[in-house]
Specification:
Distance between the termini: 49 Å
Oligomer: single chain
Helix content: 55-70%
Largest sheet: none
Number of helices: 3
Radius of gyration: 22 Å
Order of helices and strands: HHH
Number of strands: 0
Low-confidence stretches: none
Structural class: mainly alpha
Strand content: under 5%
Mean pLDDT: 82
Length: 116
Amino acid sequence: MSNSKQHPDDTIMEIAHSVTSQDQVQASQRIDCSPENIEQGLARLVLSLVELLRQVLERQAIRRMEGGSLQEEQVEKMGEALMALEAKIHELSASFGLTPADLNIDLGPLGHLLEK
């Protein structure tokens, strides 16, 4: 015979567990700028912003290319520059022990910084 009613203590424990789990997820998304990790936290913030700018420039380049306002030579140079920037971002991220996913900072109710 199973009791469909849940004991109040069980409900309280479930709520506490849920809140704790959410806090842990949010804490893992925060940029850690403690004295021990200030370098990595700052690198994460700066590289996230650089990646955001790279993505904006890439979208703008695609719009200009599709609009026909760029010559073929310009498209080639822009593509090479954007690929080189992306490679440098990945290289710097790796040197600080960061993955590309680490650069997608959670902005809370606004969502994530990057679309990827």
